[in-house]
From TrEMBL:
Belongs to the TRM44 family. The keyword Metal-binding applies. It comes from Paramormyrops kingsleyae. Residues 590-620 form the C3H1-type domain. InterPro entries: tRNA_uracil_MeTrfase, Znf_CCCH. Its EC number is 2.1.1.211. Pfam families: AdoMet_MTase. Adenosyl-L-methionine (AdoMet)-dependent tRNA (uracil-O(2)-)-methyltransferase. This is tRNA (uracil-O(2)-)-methyltransferase. It is found in: Cytoplasm. One of its GO terms (cellular component) is cytoplasm. It comes from the Eukaryota. A zinc finger (C3H1-type) spans 590-620. It is an enzyme of class 2 (transferase).
Amino acid sequence: MPKLRELPVTDTDCVLPVRFWSAVDVWIKKPHVLNKRLCGVKEEDYKEVNGTELEHILSVLWGVSFDQLKDIIFYLNNGDECQSQPLDTENGHWCYEVRTIIPKVNSYGTQMHKEIMLKDLPRKRVTFLPFEESADGDCVFRKTNVYQIQLNNLNNDEWSISISTLGGNDWFSDGVVYPRLSWLGDDLLPRLVRWAMDSQTSEFKSTLSLLPIEKYGPLYQELKAKYREIVKVWPEVTDPEKFVYEDVAIATYLLVLWEEERAERGLTSKQSFVDLGCGNGLLVHILSNEGYPGKGLDVRRRKIWDMYGPQTQLEESAIIPSDGFLFPEADWLIGNHSDELTPWIPVISSRSAYSCRFFVLPCCFFDFSGKYQRRRCRVSQYREYIDFVSEVGSVCGFQVEEDCLRIPSTKRVCLIGRTRSYERHKEAQIEAHRSCFISSRAGVSANDAPAVDQPRPGEYGDGAGWGRGFQPRQRTEAIRNCASLPRDLVERVVSQVALALLSLTSVEGSGGDTWNRGGSLTLREVAELLDKDKLLTLKNECGGLQTLLKNNHQVFTVVNGRVSVRDWRVPAGARKSKPGPGSRRTVTEARKTRPCWFHAHHPQGCPLEPENCAYAHGEMDLRPANVPHWRKRDM
């Protein structure tokens, strides 16, 4: 039994055996967290068996030959006697599990790859037996790819976790369902050790727990390829990689969920939907493009809306929770990062129609009016808020289900209300309960400190109805990134901070360099240089002083909380980080369109020659800024 690798583990808390099985379960149930070429697995069977039952299962149900079975028995017993003998027949000695491995890209046709996991609980080891199953149900056992993970007690609190194989030099690898030997030892084993030593448990469910993973994976890859071109033409300042693929993943989730619902309910028509607070509208565009009738509403129009075409229905409208904003024709209401609308969506759904369902992906923490106020300190704020929205759904009469999406976001727990907990004739009783609950929250939400700017009186109507007190955001988004600050204020702060940094060193630099690069200060020390009025103005901006300094990247660098004067002689590769999602102009387009601060204000001028500096050395060197081609259509 060749041993690939063994890693020592210290266990002073005497809990490692329990955590070992938890770590093994992560690899069994969620191998995609480590093997990025997998979409996941489908768990198919689990039972506790004795040795006789296990031999019967392998030989009769899985077609393992007599000689192969002898080798397996020898391998399973090899931890102690190193000789062939019958398997232990004690009841509950073995845990038998089966999983189907689902790759992201299926290049195997109708052939399925299955694995039997045999947990030997007393001897703390699990053996993986791979099988290839054809569409006709014929199974082939891959003896060469059998491997085993084992926890070994060395001495008191000293342990080790090892991986061994049965196949040896005959091991086959495709890097997907059959990992390389080196990967098992260098990647899987260290991660198992880390998982075994991690005492934290997640507050949330595993990802995609409500869906058949074998349907989600292929559909996600299909939609990702279909809509990836949107990344190249994304006109917003947000990161296209994140937002496009996040909405593709959410759309995939809904499409699979709705397909399962149609099959369960015997429906033939595709579900209709309304996306409340649809933002950039991409989720609406994908769902509509896939044949689902629906529309999106948002208080503010986005540039990208014009790119979708007439088949994507998007409306600029402030949504006020009231009888005027009910959607009895919609099968589903969607709240994807819907902010202040989030707790209202189950309410609007429940009052729209008995058949109306909801899907909500909470992000920012809002109550029915204003910010959500914490009440429980023993759980995270996110967990508490998810529980609150779930409570709202339950009060509204839904059997609320929770799931975790696979999206590039820290806020990825969704809540789904697809069934009611009461019969239709009890609607009046549930409505009274709903109304009472909403009224009881009036003193809990932070009306005195709203998280959104208050609209002008009468801008959205009087708010009459059951949503009284709710304040939608303004149609015009407030710019609070220091870009709208008075230019003279910005120039005074830049000059004051830069001169303070230059005063920290002498002009004599190392190696004969006489250009003064100045010293560095922490952000706190920089803040102490400014008077209270300037600091108060900056505090009203997102990011405050740090944002202002980063906006003036021509003059400053801000790294790990320390501010320095930028030296443009440093090679670009060592200085320039990855450009932000809004950085679309090339270096050629930006050259000489702004004056050089160092040429005008540094005591020794700019360290670069005029032809090498991207900024203008004087009026004669200044050229007009070109309008990038991707913005011309918005003018």
